[in-house]
Specification:
The structure holds two protein chains of two kinds. Chain A is α+β, with helices and mostly antiparallel strands. Chain A has two domains: 3-54 and 276-418, no CATH class; 60-68 and 95-269, no CATH class. Chain A has 16 helices and ten strands. Chain A has helices at residues 3-16, 18-55, 73-76, 102-111, 144-151, 162-167, 176-182, 213-216, 224-231, 251-262, 269-272, 274-312, 314-322, 327-362, 382-408, 412-418; strands at residues 60-63, 115-130, 133-142, 157-160, 171-175, 189-194, 199-208, 219-223, 240-245, 265-268. In chain A, strand 2 (115-130) and strand 3 form a beta hairpin. In chain A, helix 1 packs across helix 14 and helix 13 packs across helix 16. By secondary structure, chain B is of the alpha/beta class. Chain B has one domain (4-226): Rossmann fold, CATH 3.40.50.300. Chain B has seven helices and ten strands. Chain B has helices at residues 47-54, 77-87, 103-114, 119-132, 148-160, 178-195, 206-210; strands spanning 4-15, 21-32, 36-41, 62-67, 70-71, 88-91, 166-170, 198-202, 214-219, 222-226. In chain B, strands 6-7-8-3-9-10 form a six-stranded mixed sheet. A four-stranded antiparallel sheet of chain B has the order 2-1-4-5, covered by helices on one side. In chain B, strand 9 and strand 10 form a beta hairpin. In chain B, helix 3 crosses helix 4 (119-132), helix 3 packs parallel to helix 5 and helix 4 (119-132) packs across helix 5 (148-160). Classes of the chains: A alpha+beta, B alpha/beta. The interface between A and B is medium-sized, with 28 and 31 residues.
Chain lengths: 419, 227
C-alpha cells in the first residue's frame, strides 16, 4: 500500500482546515491533560490517605485477645455432645496478653519467605499524671529500628530524635495531643502510672503526630525494654507481633495460617481497614470515569469536524475515487486525519497534563494533622500517561472510523452527475 | 487488425425508484484503439448513464463490459478502482481539481497512486503532460488560482498521467466558452493523431461531435445511429 501518498493527502486536507483541526486537537489535549492531572492528584491523595492508616498498620497482627474460651467443659462431655447446651455467665479467661514462646515465633516468621519484616510490640494501658489529674493513655513499646523501617515511624516524629528513644534509658515519645495536655517539653520528666498501680518517671525525647487526632491524644511510644520495665515484666514479654508481608493481598490467608500454627489471635489488614480500600477504589473509579468521559466528548468533537470535512470535500473524494483510489484508500485517508489529530492532541495533552500536575504539586497544603505533607500530593505514575495515550488513540480512531466509513462509501457517480 | 479497447455487450439498466424505468436498452458496441468517439443525444437519453457504466463507476447493470478484454462484472470495488487508475482517464464537465494541492500535484496524484514509477519520475512525466497542454508555467500554482479553461486542461493532463488505454469525457466542454471549447477539442484531436490516444466523449455539442471520427447517437436508451 502506498501509505506515503495517503498520509500526504491526509496532511493536505488537514492543513487546509487547520483551524478546525486545531480546535479538535485542543479538545483532545484538554481532556488528556485533565485526565492526567485528575488521576495524578486523586491517586496522590489516595496514597496519602491510605498511607495515613495502611503504612502504619501491620499486614498481619499476632496478639492474644481476652475473650471467653470457645471450648467450654460441657462440650468435652460425650453424653451431651449432641445436645444444645446453654451456658450462662461465661467469663473471659486468662487475662494474659503475652504471646508465649515469642522468640521461637519470631524466628519462624523471619524464616518465612513471604514475610518482609516484623516488629514486636508491647501495648500498655497507662495514666499520665499531671498534677492532680490523670489522663488515660497507651504506651506502645516498640523496636525503634524495625518500626522505622517497616512502618515509617520516623515520618511522624515532629520534634526530637527517634534514636534517643533507643539510646536513652527510660525515655518516651509523647503524642502531640498528650504533650499539649501535660504541657510537657522535650527533656521534661513525665510520670506514668500503669494499670497495676506502679508509677514510673520517663524522660520526654520527642513528639509524635500521626494526623489522627484521637490517636495523638492518647498514644505514646517507648522502647520495648522501657515498657517491659514499666509493666514489671521480664525481657521476653511481648504482646503483639506486627508482620509486614511482601504481598499485601496474601494477608487474610497468612493470618489464618499463623493463627493455627502459633495458636494466637491474628488480624489481617483487609479485615482491619476494609473501609479505606473501598474509599480508594471509589475515588480511582470516579477519576477514570471523568477522564474517559472527557475523552469521549473530545471524540465527538473530532467526529463532527471530520463529518463536516467529508461533507465539504465530497467532490475531492469523488474525484479521488474516480481516478483510482479505492474506498479503502479513502477510509485510510480520513482515519489518518483523525489519528493525527488524536496523536498530536494527546502529545500536547501529556505535556500539559504533566505541567498541570507539577503546578498542583506546588500549591501549599498545610494540614496540622499531616506533618509530612507540605503541598498537594501528586502521583506521577507513568501508567496514567500510557493509559491516557492509549485511550486517546482508541477514541480518535473510533471518532474517525465512522465518518471515514461514510466517506469510503461515497458514490462518485452521484457527486459528479449532481453538478 | 486494430485492437479492441472496450466492448459493451447487451448492456441494460433500469432505475427502480419510484417506478421501474428502463434507461439503457441492449447497448452493443466496441471501440478500437486510437478511435475518437463521441456519444451524442438529447438530455435524458441515457448517454451519461452509459458512460458511468463504461467507466466502471456504476456497477448496477445487466450485460457484459470488457475493458482491455477483461470482464468487469464480478470484480470487487478495489479491483475496479485499480482498473480506473491504470486504464481510464477522466475528464468531467467540472474540473474537480483539489484546491489543497498545486497543479502539478493534482496531475501527479493518480500516478502516485499507481506507483508504477517513483515520485521523481511521476513528477517528470506530469511536467511533460502539462507541456503538451501548454500550461507548464502554471505547474506550481494552486489549482484555484487558474482560469476555467486552464483548469480543464489540468484535468486533461491528470487524465493522461498514467497513459490510459482510453480517456472518457462527460461534457468536457460543457462549462467552457467557445474559444476554450475549441482549444480542448484541438487538444483531444492532437492526442488521437500524435499519440494514438483512444477517446470516448459524451457531449451534446453537435459541432464538437461532428469533428470526431465516430458518432454514436442515442435516443431513449438505445443506440439509433453509429457511424
Amino acid at each position: 500500500m502506498n501509505y506515503k501518498l495517503i498520509l500526504d493527502i491526509a496532511k493536505s486536507l488537514l492543513l487546509a482546515r487547520w483551524k478546525q483541526t486545531l480546535v479538535a486537537a485542543i479538545g483532545v489535549t484538554f481532556s488528556i491533560a485533565m485526565f492526567i492531572a485528575l488521576l495524578g492528584f486523586m491517586t496522590g491523595l489516595n496514597d496519602l490517605l491510605d498511607g495515613l492508616i495502611l503504612n502504619r498498620t501491620a499486614h498481619v497482627r499476632l496478639f492474644n485477645e481476652i475473650k471467653p474460651n470457645p471450648n467450654q467443659p460441657i462440650n468435652a462431655s460425650d453424653a451431651y455432645k449432641t445436645h444444645h447446651n446453654f451456658i450462662e455467665s461465661v467469663k473471659a479467661v486468662g487475662g494474659r496478653l503475652e504471646i508465649y514462646n515469642n522468640a521461637a515465633i519470631i524466628k519462624t516468621l523471619n524464616a518465612d519467605p513471604r514475610v518482609l519484616g516484623l516488629a514486636p510490640k508491647i501495648t500498655a494501658q497507662v495514666l499520665y499524671n499531671s498534677g492532680a489529674t490523670d489522663i488515660t493513655g497507651i504506651v506502645s513499646g516498640i523496636d525503634v529500628d524495625a518500626e522505622t523501617k517497616l512502618f515509617f515511624f520516623n515520618d511522624y516524629i515532629v520534634s526530637g530524635k527517634v534514636n534517643d528513644l533507643k539510646n536513652i534509658a527510660n525515655s518516651i515519645v509523647l503524642g502531640k495531643g498528650v504533650a499539649e495536655k501535660l504541657l510537657a517539653n522535650i527533656g521534661d520528666i513525665v510520670q506514668v502510672t500503669t494499670s497495676k498501680g506502679d508509677i514510673m518517671p520517663l524522660r520526654v525525647v520527642g513528639f509524635f503526630q500521626s494526623g489522627v487526632l484521637d490517636i495523638d491524644k492518647v498514644q505514646s511510644y517507648a522502647s520495648i525494654s522501657t515498657t517491659q520495665k514499666l509493666l514489671g515484666k521480664g525481657n521476653g514479654y511481648i504482646t503483639d507481633i506486627n508482620v509486614k508481608l511482601k504481598d499485601l493481598t496474601l494477608a487474610p490467608a497468612i493470618a489464618k495460617e499463623y493463627a493455627q500454627l502459633f495458636r494466637v489471635d491474628t488480624e489481617d489488614i483487609q479485615t482491619a481497614n476494609a473501609q479505606y480500600e473501598t474509599g480508594s477504589s471509589v475515588r480511582t473509579t470516579i477519576s477514570y470515569t471523568v477522564g474517559i468521559t472527557l475523552l469521549i466528548v473530545a471524540g465527538f468533537g473530532i467526529y463532527n469536524i471530520l463529518n463536516m470535512m467529508i461533507y465539504e470535500k465530497m467532490d475531492s473524494i469523488a474525484i479521488l475515487k474516480a481516478t483510482g483510489f479505492s474506498g479503502k484508500d479513502v477510509r485510510r485517508i480520513f482515519i489518518a486525519i483523525s489519528l493525527s489529530i488524536g496523536v498530536f492532541g494527546a502529545f500536547l495533552g501529556l505535556i500539559s497534563g504533566f505541567l498541570l500536575s507539577a503546578i498542583i504539586d506546588q500549591i501549599p497544603f498545610n494540614n496540622p494533622g499531616l506533618p509530612a505533607v507540605k503541598t498537594y500530593p501528586i502521583n506521577y505514575s507513568l501508567s496514567f500517561y500510557i493509559i491516557g495515550t492509549i485511550f486517546s488513540i482508541i477514541t480518535t480512531y473510533l471518532a474517525g472510523f465512522f465518518p471515514a466509513q461514510k466517506a469510503s462509501k461515497i458514490d462518485p457517480v452521484i457527486i459528479i452527475r449532481g453538478k | 487488425m486494430s485492437q479492441i479497447v472496450l466492448q459493451a455487450k447487451n448492456i441494460n439498466k433500469s432505475f427502480h425508484d419510484p417506478i421501474t424505468v428502463k434507461v439503457l436498452n441492449n447497448i452493443n458496441f466496441s471501440i478500437n484503439k486510437g478511435e475518437f468517439v463521441s456519444i451524442i443525444g438529447k438530455s435524458g437519453c441515457g448517454k451519461s448513464t452509459l458512460l458511468y457504466i463504461l467507466s466502471t463507476m456504476d456497477t448496477d447493470y445487466e450485460g457484459e463490459l470488457l475493458i482491455d478484454k477483461q470482464e468487469m462484472k464480478n470484480k470487487k470495488e478495489a479491483q475496479l478502482a485499480k482498473i480506473r487508475n491504470e486504464k481510464i482517464g477522466f475528464v468531467f464537465q467540472f474540473h474537480y481539481l483539489l484546491n489543497e494541492f498545486t497543479v502539478l500535484k493534482n496531475v501527479m496524484l493518480p500516478g502516485l497512486k499507481l506507483a508504477k514509477y517513483n515520485a521523481k519520475e511521476v513528477e517528470h512525466r506530469a511536467m511533460e503532460k502539462l507541456k503538451i497542454l501548454g500550461i507548464e508555467n502554471e505547474a506550481l500554482k494552486k489549482a484555484n488560482q487558474l482560469s476555467g479553461g486552464q483548469k480543464q486542461r489540468v484535468a486533461i493532463a491528470r487524465a493522461l498521467i498514467n497513459d490510459p488505454l482510453i480517456i472518457m469525457g462527460d461534457e468536457p466542454t460543457g462549462n467552457l466558452d467557445k474559444k476554450n471549447s475549441e482549444n480542448v477539442f484541438d487538444i483531444f484531436k492532437q492526442l488521437t493523431q500524435e499519440f494514438n490516444q483512444t477517446l470516448l466523449i459524451v457531449t451534446h455539442d453537435q459541432s464538437f461531435a461532428r469533428n470526431t471520427n465516430r458518432i454514436i447517437e442515442m435516443e431513449d436508451g438505445r443506440i439509433i445511429n453509429d457511424k
